[in-house]
UniProtKB/TrEMBL annotation:
Domain Sulfotransferase: 8-190
Keywords carried by this UniProt record: Glycoprotein, Transferase
Pfam family, one: Sulfotransfer_1
InterPro entries: NST/OST (IPR037359), P-loop_NTPase (IPR027417), Sulfotransferase_dom (IPR000863)
Coiled coil location: none
Gene3D superfamilies to which the protein is assigned, alphabetical: P-loop containing nucleotide triphosphate hydrolases
Protein name (Swiss-Prot/TrEMBL): Sulfotransferase domain-containing protein
Protein's organism: Adonisia turfae CCMR0082
GO molecular function per UniProt: sulfotransferase activity
C-alpha cells in the first residue's frame, strides 16, 4: 500500500466519532479519507473493489503524512460486523491503530434508536422490542468489552485506544488530543486544533429536512468549499430543521424496565471494562 499506517475510529455510533474525525483531519500529518465513513472493510460492494480503491480514498503525501484516517462506527454496530471487519483487515498488510469511543450504554441506545427510527433502519428492531426488553442485536452494539476482546485477540492491546465521550467534551478535548490521542497516533501533539466546529447537529440525521434532500441530491457538493465553516454550520442548523412539525413522541422513549434490562444484560461486560481494561465508568447510569 502507498501508506504504512491507518488509524480507524471504530465507534461507537452516536459517541462523537464525527467530531473527533474532523478534529484529527486538521492535523498536517494526517491524511483523511474522502468520506468519513468508508465502511470499506464491512460493505461487500466496497471490499470487492479492491485495495486500490481504498488507497485512492486518501490524498496521501509521503513527505508529510504519518497516518491515514477514517471513522466507520458501523464496524462495531454488531459482533458479526466486528468479526467480518477483523477477518478482512488481517488480509491487508498494514499497521493499524484503533480508537474506540465509549458512551454510557443507556444514553447510546436512546440516541441510536432515535436516529434509526427517523432514518427507517431501526424499524425491524423496534418490532422486536417489548415493554421489558430489547433485541439482543441492540445490546450487542453496547457490549463494549466483548467488542474490545475481539480486537485484542487479533491485534495487540497497544493498538487500541479506549476513550469515553466525557473526554471529548469542549472543556477537556484539547487536553485529550494533546496528551492521549496524538501520542497514540504518533503525530505531533503540539499542533493547535480548531475546536469551535459543530458536528452532527441534533437534527442532522433526520430524513425529513431540506438539508437531507440537498445532501442526497448532491446539490451541496459544488458549493461546499466556497463558504467558511461558520456560515456552513449556521446554514446546516437552519436547513436541518424538520419540514413538518413532527411529534417527538413518534420516537418512544425507553421504559424503565427496558433500561433495567440493558443494565442487567451488560452487568458482566461493564465489570470487565473496569477490571480488565481499566476504564473508569463510575459516572455511567448502570445501577
Amino acid at each position: 500500500m502507498k501508506f504504512s499506517k491507518i488509524s480507524i475510529i471504530i465507534g461507537t455510533q452516536k459517541g462523537g466519532t464525527s467530531s473527533l474525525f474532523n478534529y484529527l483531519s486538521q492535523h498536517p500529518q494526517v491524511s483523511k479519507s474522502k468520506m468519513k465513513e468508508t465502511d470499506f472493510f464491512l460493505k461487500d460492494g466496497k471490499w470487492g473493489k479492491g485495495i486500490d480503491y481504498y488507497e485512492n480514498l486518501y490524498a496521501w503525501d509521503l513527505n508529510k503524512h504519518l497516518t491515514a484516517l477514517e471513522a466507520s462506527p458501523n464496524y462495531t454496530r454488531s459482533l458479526n460486523n466486528v468479526r467480518k471487519v477483523i477477518q478482512r483487515m488481517k488480509t491487508v498488510d498494514i499497521r493499524y491503530k484503533f480508537i474506540y469511543i465509549l458512551r454510557d450504554p443507556v444514553q447510546k441506545i436512546e440516541s441510536m434508536r432515535k436516529q434509526g427510527i427517523y432514518q427507517g433502519w431501526y424499524a425491524k428492531y423496534l418490532a422486536k422490542e417489548t415493554p421489558n426488553s430489547l433485541p439482543l442485536n441492540v445490546i450487542e452494539s453496547v457490549s463494549y468489552a466483548a467488542i474490545v476482546d475481539a480486537f485484542t485477540r487479533n491485534f495487540s492491546r497497544e493498538q487500541i485506544l479506549l476513550l469515553k465521550t466525557d473526554e471529548l467534551k469542549k472543556d477537556v478535548i484539547s487536553m485529550t488530543l494533546k496528551c492521549k490521542i496524538c501520542p497514540f497516533l504518533e503525530i505531533e501533539p503540539s499542533f493547535e486544533f480548531s475546536l469551535g466546529k459543530i458536528h452532527n447537529s441534533k437534527n442532522s440525521y433526520r430524513t425529513d429536512t431540506i438539508w437531507h434532500y440537498l445532501r442526497e441530491a448532491r446539490y451541496l457538493n459544488p458549493i461546499k468549499n466556497i463558504f467558511p465553516d461558520s456560515i456552513k454550520n449556521n446554514a446546516r442548523n437552519v436547513l436541518a430543521r424538520p419540514l413538518m412539525n413532527q411529534d417527538q413522541g413518534k420516537v418512544p422513549p425507553l421504559t424503565d424496565a427496558q433500561k433495567d434490562f440493558i443494565r442487567a444484560m451488560l452487568k458482566d461486560d461493564s465489570h470487565r471494562l473496569e477490571t480488565e481494561y481499566s476504564l473508569d465508568i463510575s459516572n455511567w447510569d448502570l445501577n
